[in-house]
Amino acid sequence: MSENCAIVVAGGKGRRMGKAINKLFLELNNKPILAHTLEAFENNKNIDSIILVAGKEELEYCKKEIVLPYSFKKVKKIVPGGEDRRDSVLNGLKAVTDCDIVIIHDGARPFIDARIIEDGINYAKIYGASACGVQPKDTIKIKSHSGFSKGTLNRSELFCVQTPQCFRLELILKAHEDVAGKNISVTDDTSVAEMCGNKVFLYDGSYDNIKITTPDDLLLGEKILKHFSIDNID
């Protein structure tokens, strides 16, 4: 029987939030953002286990203030993050055992629904790698260094990538190990996979699946939460 493991990355400082604490510990509807995110995977029947990657100084806090109070039984390990997101994900991957598919997700995206998780897993089983996202609503311009427009991109060919990003474990682990220690700048795991010659299937995410980064995102998150619900049985 195949196993699916979610790696939730929660080690970022979130400086753009302008708060003294990790933004993931801020509350939406009297519950920490990170708890909302973990709940989505805890309640999903397709997820067998969760690895939480947190800042080294926040491991105990995550355990005592997030995992235990909210009874997240699927969180099997809380592991320390690295110097950057890429290192943190690799630490999480190395902690995974008995798993076929890994679902890598930003802790700052609490509005992930069951359909997106299930689709990601299914596509990763077929193609080896998948990521959800949405088409941009705005016209995208190429801006020159002098501030002038250099051209307009074809919006129908553009894709705003979100998480979760789902992979066969051996594929993404090898890719991360291959680029580890190299001076390569990447912002997500699809980039790591593609650098090693892997193709990533892109599928529909949701405009509600926002990443909470700024104070304005907190306000938007409160509005989304009013109509957002997680299907506990799907």
Automatic annotation (TrEMBL):
This is 2-C-methyl-D-erythritol 4-phosphate cytidylyltransferase. The record marks R16, K23 as: Transition state stabilizer. InterPro entries: IspD, IspD/TarI, IspD/TarI_cytidylyltransf_bact, ISPD_synthase_CS, Nucleotide-diphossugar_trans. Pfam families: IspD. One of its GO terms (molecular function) is 2-C-methyl-D-erythritol 4-phosphate cytidylyltransferase activity. Its EC number is 2.7.7.60. Belongs to the IspD/TarI cytidylyltransferase family. IspD subfamily. Keywords: Isoprene biosynthesis, Nucleotidyltransferase, Transferase. Catalyzes the formation of 4-diphosphocytidyl-2-C-methyl-D-erythritol from CTP and 2-C-methyl-D-erythritol 4-phosphate (MEP). It catalyses: 2-C-methyl-D-erythritol 4-phosphate + CTP + H(+) = 4-CDP-2-C-methyl-D-erythritol + diphosphate. It comes from Clostridium acidisoli DSM 12555. GO terms for biological process: isopentenyl diphosphate biosynthetic process, methylerythritol 4-phosphate pathway. Pathway: Isoprenoid biosynthesis; isopentenyl diphosphate biosynthesis via DXP pathway; isopentenyl diphosphate from 1-deoxy-D-xylulose 5-phosphate: step 2/6.
